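Re: folding output
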Amino acid sequence: MKLSLVETDIVGVIYGHIEACKWSLARMRYSMNKSTRNMRLKRIKVAYIDLNEAHTEIKERTDLSRYFGGSGLAFKLLSEYKDVLREDALRPELPIIFAKGFFTGIYPCATKVAAAFKSPLTGELGESHAGGKLAFAMASVGLDALVIQGASEKPAFIQIDDSDIAIKEAEELWGLSCYEVNERLSGKSKLYIGEAGEQRIPFACVVVDAYRHFGRLGLGALFGSKRLKALTISGKKRARVKSSYYPEILNRIREDNDLKKYSQGYGTSENTTIMNEVGGLPTKNLQANRFDVKGITEDAFATLLVKQETCTGCPIRCINVAKRKSNSPKIAYDYELIYSFGPLLGIGEAEEVLKLLERVEEYGLDAIATGNLLAWATEAYEKGLIELPVPLQFGVTENYLKTIDKLVEGEGIYKDLRKGTEEAASIYGGKDFALTLGKNAIAGYHTGYALLVGQAVGQRHSHMDNNAWFLDFENYSPEAAVDELISDEKKRCLMNSLGLCLFTISVYDLKLISEGLRAIGIDKSEEELLEIGGEIFDIKQEINCACGFEYENLEFPKRLFETESMNGFLNRETVDKMLKQYVEKM
């Protein structure tokens, strides 16, 4: 059936001050856009799945089409649960929401699905994005979003086939590793947790199609709290929509110099060498900014490379998969993972890094958060702040492997440690060298003010919220960096709603997005697109406020000022000025 695109204009939205954290009131009016030409458009279809009642329902939400899907759709849906957002993140009433992007199946590299939830790690906004096969699988069953509520009494998994949604028992899957679950499940796309999620560790992740993850902020713990072990999706609907503009965008992606390191090289793993050369590589819990990286360069990992894969709908093979031995599992790696289990822990051999990645993958732990915690625990142990049954020392892989096992077991001091770096430091001391911003583990860049402030104010406290480390490389002034952090995050909100991989941000500028929309009958100027990105930014801000976030409570560990960055030593006064400017301008 051919349908017109329904656009929703929000009129008279009243935003209160951040401190008040009052939710916006809006009057909605709808207008039909009949210029959709030959494109087959669907209304927004949302599947509501109640695990407690074992009930499912699919609703059409024409009021949500303005946000294009993805993160805009996901967080607009999450905002409807504002009354319970101050509750504990693991409460059954709080939903898990997945949404695919509007460009999925229309243009290349629109491969991402956004997850929206309340983070059990930070107590704030939970946002994560995963590629793999998931976006196209959702399109193949005709769904734009999933809203999962409640908790099952027994372990369960959700099976979606075409438009049929079934909640099935998963007793035989409970307790299995991520490797074992992946082997037993079938489906176009598979989401699952390991023992870390079952144990509700607040930095447990959800594995997607073996090599992708919803990571960083603890979505796996929410799966565990709902007794949800897995979710599979398989459909037969055609996921692709023809657009005459597709070849033009595809050609731009293939010719873009910034993307050639993924399609013709070894991807982000080359950042290890780059960051080391410029003196921005956090080493041994950021006690230094350089490391002997010859054993963990992109070339070192390439000797273990077995294949390079791509997400469905993407021409770029950026998923590097390595294997240590014939009987070892295949592991996807990139710079952030190399950094977390390499320089940050004083480990300088590719095989040793892969051993640690294999272990966290088995349990379903977020690699960045785990490496960050181990680095803090090593220094805390060396300083006598904590006593450990398994002593930790930078560079000693075997004891890190044993500690990961004990974190999942959760006995004795490990019950506290597995609460995450921020909470562990609050209990035992050592917050000055706890490398978190907004309670989330820092990324692998110690480049300057923009990165430090950018991750702190980013609405999920991630280096992917904005282009901060690039601004440090380009030597932006503090004042100019703040302006760019705001505008760039709004653009990324738009891209995440379209389902676009952020690696393609150099290609998908606002002009190209506008032209791509026009080619399928949707007339949106660059100014209008940025306005929509700004609305999504505001929705996320409101959710954070409803969770209790306040800018004045942001903490910056002293270690970030004690160790020289790529741009020299940083001072707290400049950070405070930038933070004040950010709050005034956003």
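--- second protein (sequence, then structure) ---
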Amino acid sequence: MKSGFALLVLFCCVLAPHACLAQAVGNNVSGVVLDPSGATIAGAQVELKRADSEAIASAVTNNAGGFHFDGMSAGQYHIVVQATGFKDSGQDVNIGSKPISLKIVLAVAAEAETIEVGPNAGSSQVSTEIAENQNANVLDRSALDHMPVFDQDYIATVSRFLDDNAIGTNGVTLVVNGLESNGPGVTASAIQEVKINQNPYSALFSRPGRARMEITTKGGTPQFHGTLTFMFRDSVVDAANAFAGVKPPEQRRYFEGSLTGPLGKSKKTTFLLSLNQDYLDLQNIVVAQGLSGPINENVPNPTRHFFGSGRIFHDFTPHDQFWIGYSYERKTVQNAGVGGTVMPEAGTDTKSQEHEVNVSYRHTFSGTTVNQLRFLLGHHDLPTTSINPEPAIVVQGAFTGGGAQANFRRTEYHLEGTDIVTRVVGKHELNFGVDVPDLSRRAFDDFTNTQGTYTFASLAAYQAGLPTTYLVQRGQGHVAFMELNFAGFVEDKIRLRPDLAISVGLRYYWQNYFNDRATNFAPRLGFAYAPSKNRKIVLRGGAGIFYDRTGPWPIADLLHFNGVNLLQYIVENPSFPVAPASLAAAPTSLMELDPRTRIPYTLQYSASIERQMTAKSTATIAYVGSRGMDMFRSIDANAPLPPNFATIPNPALGQVSEMQSEGYQKSNALELTFQGAPSKYFTGQVQYRLSKTYNNTGGIWWYPQNSYDPSADWARAGNDRRHKFDMMGSLHPTRFFNLGMALSLYSGLPVDVTTGSDNNLDGILNDRPAGVPRNSMHGPGQISLDFSLSHDFLLSKARDHAKTLSAALNAFNILNHTNDMTYVGVITSPFFGHAVTALPPRRMQLDLVYKF
């Protein structure tokens, strides 16, 4: 480490003259031009004019939609952008002492329509455009380069602005270049922009704004440009983990880069290549208690990750733009799942591989009609292997030992695609098309619990050899099935007046394995109105219905545990080890789908007031309400009957897990957002969210304490975080360095208090003490402050994309605040009411980025 820092200091000294050179070179303006769907527009004409309308420079956007004007003198300028099939756009810019990065979205052209474009059009400007709500969170390439980003993981960094209450059963919806995807498809430096909650009620997407993350990636360029990134962390300069008896040695070495340029002599064909090799050596901290006393040890958790992606772009004509790409990803993780009360022998090793082919084609039929087709084909293989083949031993709230009993393999071939037609007629911008977010052939090989899992209520019960339950599986663990999700949509954005716009849309959902296929229509509505002549205030609102998706895991479970393929046995109060006779007498457990099950949906509605605060900053106050209808949950349809639990409705069967859609959720939130550049020294966004969420379900695999009275579990939702404050921004106090910062202040999530025993003999260990409601314990809050101190060294005078080296020192959780993950809620646990895991302590990270 010492030699590494010495080398960095020497390198900076050698480059010091270049830093002085940077002060003498003129300022630069760069930007990206996008269409309404977020796709880049190549071949657009960009003209830079003085305040007196004299044209002084022009450029043509590359295949990434990018343009540059370098070496400009300070002053007021006007930028005009023109592209075939799109409306012209004009925007004023004030060039000062700092580089300027712009995002310009062109609307599809109308035959005879003019829309006023104000002098402050652009980002952080209130607008009556439906998709320009100011409580969205948008980070472009310039912002991403100056933020403290841990491990170069931009997706995790921006995900702090997501809303857990809006996320569906299948997790966060990731939209890449307009297509729902499993990942960004490129490495970090090839990401152009990340945004959350843009146009929350768009009919083009399956989930509301704070449940989806939209990513725009870079394209090819007619000249060679690239980025090389080296990132390094070492625990030598980090603080010690709060739960580690001995400070664990950890290190990460990260190499990443991207390259764009022409392919051959023709400027019409370009490429984008991005690669990433990652070496991560972490330690999992075990905090448990066995019969001999406390257990505290560090367990190596190495991860190796490679990702490579290549794309070729070609413009057949100015009206036909096409690209095709291939990506490959490989990842191995050792000792996964270890940590907290999970012992080293109960971990797993995982290996995954994924291949994907992406295709995009855009055709402009006329000045009013554009068609965008995107699809991808992929293959994914994910095997999981238990480190130890022994039966699993779970002592509630004390330790998990033995073997993991988690052998599993998942493989899939999937197709995802969307086709969007945009047509402008008069005051209407019409979008319609089809969306196939998932068409997959999946195979699940389940070899879990072949030796079984013993669960004990307490250490005393374990010492006495008295398990509460024993779960074991026998039979055929292989199933294969097709999963199909389909949607059709239509949306009309109507400009009624220059100060009033509305959006009306309808989306239809269909998923196999469900019976309500004719009724899944989801209407969407949005409006934006500027009541004053100066249009510094915009009133905005909307509402929409959003249907859920199960994902593949529930379908696989229904096919596995049908009483024929994979037989599951749950034995109550067995001997230890279990007697073969008791296992032979145990009835088979099943999993089934309630014939009344419908696809759950969420009704979300909101109203907001947006105010232009300065020329480049806005403030928003918004109310957001939602109601979750027909939400997923499970019950034991064959649970022993109360009050004495001595009788089972069907003695020939064991537990009958029935997936239902009978849950309900209610959420209300107040959001305060400030974003933009209130001064030439600071750019960023601040958001505070006050919310309250109650429900009677925790998801598709969640069971109520009493299957005969699920409504009794109405309480705080497991993700009910009342207070949430986030700030991300960059400070430019001098020309010598940039200071990026991120602050998160969160109140705690609730914790469910349980007995650790199976008091009602249903095989589900979620029983609570008498009179104790669900999620009654308040969990720990979190405080995290991150900083990034960086400087850009100019290595050339080139007017077109100068060569630069950026050096950044990042500090995460610089206050070294102990952020406990959660508290143990099992009353028989020696750790009851305390935490056994925490988020990482203060960590330092060195980033070196070379751009040319």
